[in-house]
Every structure is written in C-alpha cells, then in structure tokens.
Automatic annotation (TrEMBL):
InterPro entries in UniProt: ACMSD, Amidohydro-rel, Metal_Hydrolase
Record-annotated Amidohydrolase-related domain positions: 76-349
Protein keywords: Lyase
Keyword Coiled coil attributed: no
Domain of life: Bacteria
Signal peptide (from-to): none
Name under which the protein is recorded: Amidohydrolase
Presence of the UniProt keyword Lyase in the record: yes
Amino acid sequence: MTSPAAAPRPYRRIATEEAWAPPEMFDLFRRILGEHPEDDPGFMSLMGYYALGDGERPRFIRERMVDTEGVRLQEMDAAGVDHQILALTAPGTNPLAAAQATDLARVANDHLGDIVRKRPDRFSGLAAVPFTAADAGAAELERAVTQLGLKGAILNSHVRDRYTDSPEFLPFYEAAASLGVPVYLHPNAPSAGLFKPLHDRGLDGSMYGFGVETGLHLMRLVVSGVFERFPALKLVVGHLGEAVPFWLNRIDYMYGKQVATGRYAHVKPLPLKPSEYIRRNVWITTSGMPWEDEIMFVRKMMGADRVMYAMDYPYQYEPSEVELQDKLPLTDEERFEFFEGIATRVFDLEL
Ligand code: CA
C-alpha cells in the first residue's frame, strides 16, 4: 500500500540508518551459532533470533536485509523514501576474531560498493570495519572510502565486550577524522556485563537495552576524550541520541562537580563540557523514533542542524512514521534540511 508520504514533494527523503547484509553474513553467523552459542549470550539472543529464527518476523527481516533490487525498492517507493544509507546490520564484524572480521568486512564492502555503483540515486553505503584487526580496521576503512566510494563507517557498539573508547580503536577514529567521514554509532546486543539484568526481563533488545548500551558508548567516547583528541571526528547516533539529549543538562552539572572535587583519579578532566563535545561532534537521527514531542525536544537540545531523518529499515518499516515526520511543525526550509540537507552535508552525498 502506498503511503500519502509517497506523493511528490520539494525535497528528497534520505533515510540514514538503514540495515543491509550480504547472504554470506547470515551463513557465517549460522555456522558460529551452531558451534559456540554459549560464548556470547548477547550475540546468541540477537542472531539466534534474526539468523536462525523461522517465525514471521525473522523471515521478514532476513528477506529484506539481503535485498536491494526487489522488495526494498518497492517499500522505499511506497513509503516515499528516496535514498537509503545502507550499513552492515548489527553486530557487524564485532563478534569475530581479526581474520574472520577482515574477511567479512571486505566481502560486505565490496558488495556494498557494487550496490552503490549500480544505483547511486537510491543507495549510499557505510563501511563495515574489522575492529579486531591490528589497526582496528583503519586500512579497510580507507580502502572502502577511497576505492569503493563508501561514505563513512558503521560501528555497532562493543567489540567482543571492548568498549568503543578503548585505546586500540584510536587508529580507527584517526582514520575516520583524517578521511573526513562520519562514524555511525549503532546498537548491538549488550556486552556480557550488561546483558543479564536486561535479558532477565526481555529488555536486552531494541525496546530498551540497545539504547542503554549505545548511550553508554556515546558517554564513554565523550568523557574519555576521544573528541578532544580528534576534534574533526564526526559521530552520528540514532534513536534520537539514545536518550543522552534528555540528560544533557544534568550530565554537564554533575560532570562539573566531579571535576571540581577530583572524585575520580583515573578520569582526566576535559577542557569542554560534555554537551559542548556532543553539540560539536555528534549528529542525531530519528531512526525508530518518529514522534513529534521527542523530535522537537531533541532539536531544541542539540540544535536543529544536528537532527536528521532515518527509518531503521527493515526493523521498523512503518510508512505511517514517514507521514508523522512529514507533519512536524517545521518551515519548508527546516523540513528540507531535516530530510535532505543535513544528511547530504554530513555524509558528503552527491545526489
Ligand atoms: Ca538500526
């Protein structure tokens, strides 16, 4: 069924957090789940469902995930989405050891490069990165951007329980900053330490746990000084900023108290407030969060030029949510920026 949002309009809708995977990823994950499922309960919860599940929803997701020529284009047209920025779905290469992660990233990026070359009007791509490689995937990011035309990197939260501010990932951030491409910080199943209290109540997934896990990564990146070290680094965060914009004033206030009292000897104070790094280095998307009250609040907290549209296809394919965002109380110019302008600049798209 075609949504009213599919009608002609004076802007393109660029959806910025859209999931994709090559069939090889599902084959590999099915093999791993068959061998060592107990090693990684978060991975088992996430991919045990989406890669192995035979219910209606996992089959719906798998069919769309590997497609860029059939049902995906039909559903983009029906919902009025002109362009998707595709990224290897969570957990990406993160659960894999270096050699396997490198292989999967190369396969995914080569495949995504082909998709983008074939339909540059409909698709752009973010690079999968082998974060467990010795250079944290810096070389593969550079290859994907300079040789394959991909527009940034996808970082699916923790890498085998290592948080994204860990020192071994600095070469990756350095490469992203020097290439001038954004890093999209995306959820993953919670790390081992966070998994149990969330999973006990069925809260480990996108309902709640993803936001807790990913918001924690964002805050760790800020207070660890990654943005102080790489002022040009661009980070994109979905789901309206994983609740961090709601906390921003309290974060600044309590950070100030902690610094003033020297409470944590192991945490080095930074010259800027947390909110100053977040408003300087971070852009927010509305993936899975189409509601007016939340979007207008986050625009106010972050600045309107930092909040852009995303759908979260195919996990949250709801054409009515495009209509909701079409009706946001914005001027024509603001609506253009929200759906097209900001994404075009942040991801350096040539549409
Ligand atoms: Ca997503």
